Every structure is written in C-alpha cells, then in structure tokens.
Amino acid sequence: MTADFLVIGAGLAGLSFALRAAKHGSVIVVTKGDPYESNTAWAQGGIASVLGEDMRDEGDSEESHVADTLGAGAGLCREDVVRTIVSEGEETIGELIDYGVSFDRNGERYQLGKEGGHSHRRILHARDTTGKEVIRTLYEKAKRTPNLTVLENHFVIDLITSSKLGAVAEDRVLGAYVLETKTGEVRVFRSDRVVLAAGGCGKVYLYTTNPDSATGDGVALGWRAGASIANLEFVQFHPTCFYNPGATGPEARSFLVSEAVRGEGGVLVNAKGEDFTKQSDERGSLAPRDIVARAIDRELKRTGASCVYLDVTHKPKGFMSERFPYIYETLMKFGLDCEKEPIPVVPAAHYQCGGVVTDVNGKSTIRGLYVVGEAACTGLHGANRLASNSLLEAAVVARRAVDEMMRLYSPSKSVAKPLDIPDWEHGDTAPPDELVVIYHNWDEIRRLMWDYVSIVRTDNRLRRAAARLKNLKKEVREFYWGHRVNANILELRNLVATASLIVECALRRKESRGLHYTADYPETLDRYRTDTVLRRF
C-alpha cells in the first residue's frame, strides 16, 4: 500500500496530524489495536493551556506557564521549545473545540482545574475522562474525513529506511513493514512521510497506569531505524494509582486517581492521617510528581506500609460524584466510597519524558520521519513532565509537523528516486509453541524493571538489570526469528528494547535530577545538565 502520509498510532498525536494532513494528500493511520486503548484515551486530567485574558485564571499568563514547566523540568527543558508550545496552546485548543471536543464550562467560561506544579488553574477538562472525549471526537471525525483511512489491528514490525536497503546517500524513511494481526499477513506500507505516534512504555514496569498497549513501540521502532534517542532515564511515576491488591482485571491493576483530585483539595496522608508530603516540599500534595512520588516511596519504606491514602473526605457530600464521576463510580465498584473513607494509593509508572529526539516540529534525525506525542523527546518536559502538558505537546507538535512536512516534503515534490523494497524477512513458519516462555519473559522484564529501575536507583541495581536484559534480548531475538511472528512476540521485542534503553540512559547519568534519583549520586550537578543521547551505529 502507498500513501502520501503514513501515521503509526491513533492517539491525540496521530489523529491530530492525520486530520490536518488529509487536506494535502492521502493518509493511512495504522494502530495495533483500538484507539480507545491508548494513553490519550486513558488520560483523566486534561490539557494545560493559558487562554485569552477574559477566559484565564486571574493572574495567570503564558510566562507563568513557562516558568512552571521549566521549574518542573529540573534544568533540562529547552526553553525555546517550552515557549513555542505554550504560546500556541490557545490556538491548538481552539482547533480541538472546532473538531467538537467539549470541555467543561461554568456558564460562558471554561471550568479550569489545577494540578501539581502549576501555580494557577489552567487545566481544561471533560469531567475526569478528558482523554476519552478527545479520542471519541477525533476518531469519529477521522472516519468521516476524505483521504483518511484508519486501519485497526495493524502492528508495525519495523520502519523501512534507505540505509537498511544499502543506499549510501542521506538516510531517509521509505515506509514500514506492517502485520495485519487478524490474518497474519505482512505487507509493505510505502510512504516518504512517516509520523511515529506510537505512545509510551508504561508496561515496561510491573505497576503502571497505562493500558496494555503501552509497550514502548514508538521508541523501539525509532531506535531500530537508527534515530537518536534521549533521556529515557526520566520515567515519571504517577503518585496516585489505586491500591487494590485483592482485585483482578486491568482496571483494578491500573486505575489512576487523577492529579486533579489533589488540585481540588485532596491530601496525601499516611495510615495515621498525617500529611507527610510537606516534609519534602512546602507545596505538599501539589508539588511536582517526582517530588511527591519520592515522598510516598520514602514514607512506605519508613513505615513498612503497603500504601498511603488520598483523603477527600473533608469535601462536601456529592462533590466527588459530581466533579469526578468516573473515579467515584469506579471506586464504588470496588466497594470504596471515597466521600467517606480515604483512597489507598501507590506510585506507578505513568509517562516517559524521553524518547526519539526531535525538534519542536517533530522532525527526527532521519529524513521524512517525524515523531509526535509521548514517543518523542522535544525538550518540553526535561527531567520531569509538568502535569497535563503532554496532551498540549501532542496537539501542538502535530500541527507544526504537518506545516513543516508540507514545506520540506510536499506530496507534489519528489523526495528522491524510489528504491525497490524487498519483502519482509520472517522466521520459521511454525506457530509459537512456547507461549508460556514468552509470557514468563514478559513478566520477568516488568518485575526486574520495577525492582531495579524504579523510583530510587543504584548503580548496582542498574548493572544487574542491564546484565539480565542483555540475556533476555538474546532470547527474544530467538523467538522473533524462530517462530511465525504475532503481536505477542512483537510487543515483547519492543518491551525488552525499550527497557534496555532506559537502563543504559540511567547508568550514564551519575547524578540525581528530576525523575532519575540514585542513592549513589544524590546531588544534582551542573556538568550533567545535558541530555543523555544514544545513537545506534
């Protein structure tokens, strides 16, 4: 198949790009599953943006949003990128509203929320299911848009680049090998303009707020294609994942209690009802996520407790069911009335601040390959993401990527002489007969990452993780080439690749900064105020 634009991923980043690009040429969007099983769709909080003067919180400004972002990023944000994305927030929000996204209002004004690290209320939301509202709107519009085709159950195996075909000129993207998971057929999807928007990597860890689809596909695809990777040591752990060890099912294991709950007055306390977070930061429960997650980790280790608690029992009766109906109703399903008793919570892997290196337009180090959303490292987040900046980044950079592509690689211009693309090389034709071993490897990766590469790290733990991951990569490679390929093998292949890159980045940073805290190097040092960049040669 051939298209003017090939988009990998159907979250906010991918669909935003696709809707705009469809005005300029044919677009194919491939997603390995259901768009509603994406990190965007699972986002509860909202989108951070400073609106016009008649709509914003009193005293708020773009300069304040920039300062909050830089402060959370612990010295590694690219200020030019931060200013660009913040300054284009209102225009981007307007485009989402034009598509039909409905944000909550109080009369004529938007109802703005506040989250950790923000100095003002500036979070637009749709109750506590903002991401689902965004995906519903964009996906429905995409299905009605001429020139735009969305293909579910299509898993990208690898990107195709000219260097992989032996071309000696500038490396450029040519398309992708794609597995149709329902039929097992592998096809070449050809395009000189590819957008990688394949999301995050939360499933690298045993405990995560992410859906099962978040297996590091974007980072792994970019790495194998030869793109530069940066700052994967900075994995954000959300402080408040519902702790419910007796329950089963994905919702019980991964249910996030939005940071917006703390923005509306929720307080983190220990089993004695004490607010322990102010010992770490005067902002207490509304400090940036890296600080709060470490405070919880420290409290759990100090007391030996299994969890801490998010207390909203002081709020008026009916407040939670009105403002956070999804959270309230989900907790009730598990037998907890959060208006009467505190919510047990623990930190869980949530968001990768690093990824494939790009500029503010999503442009990677490979010609024609753009990366947008969580899989990208634009420099906005630095060493720690400010809450609700992720959806803002995805939407802004997607818009800019279309403009940049049209300027450099318009479909009316020939990028270069077409190269012959061979059929995909596959392994043995026998179906996998060792799925139990595959699942064991999957579980082992996630457990070792949780035990050795979590909120607090040491060089010894990191080296142990690196050694075991080296062996696991070899085992996974044997599965990949020894069996008929399927989604399980492809996800495991991406999972072990991304886990290995996280560990390698973490070993290189001999300091504590933002989300990377190591007991061996507890200080933050000026000489490490630089990105951790990996390149595959």
Q: What would you note in describing this structure?
A:
This protein has 537 residues and is of the alpha/beta class. Among the domains are: 242-345, Alpha-Beta Complex (Flavocytochrome C3, Chain A, domain 1), CATH 3.90.700; 435-534, Fumarate reductase/succinate dehydrogenase flavoprotein-like, C-terminal domain (Methane Monooxygenase Hydroxylase, Chain G, domain 1), CATH 1.20.58. It is built from 16 helices and 23 strands. The protein has helices at residues 12-21, 39-42, 62-72, 79-87, 89-99, 130-143, 217-225, 250-254, 259-263, 289-303, 319-323, 325-333, 389-409, 435-452, 459-482, 487-508; strands at 5-8, 27-30, 47-48, 105-106, 109-110, 112-113, 123-124, 148-151, 154-161, 173-180, 185-190, 194-196, 229-230, 235-242, 267-269, 308-311, 343-352, 355-357, 369-371, 376-377, 456-457, 517-518, 533-534. It has a five-stranded parallel beta sheet with strand order 8-2-1-12-19, sandwiched between helices. A four-stranded mixed beta sheet has the order 20-18-13-23. Strands 14-17-16-15 form a four-stranded antiparallel beta sheet. The longest helix is centred in the last third of the chain and has 24 residues, at 459-482. The chain starts with a strand and ends with a strand. The model has no long low-confidence stretch (mean pLDDT 92).
Task: Using brief descriptors, characterize the structure shown.
single chain; 537 residues; alpha/beta; Flavocytochrome C3, Chain A, domain 1; Methane Monooxygenase Hydroxylase, Chain G, domain 1; 5-stranded parallel beta sheet; 4-stranded mixed beta sheet; 16 helices; globular
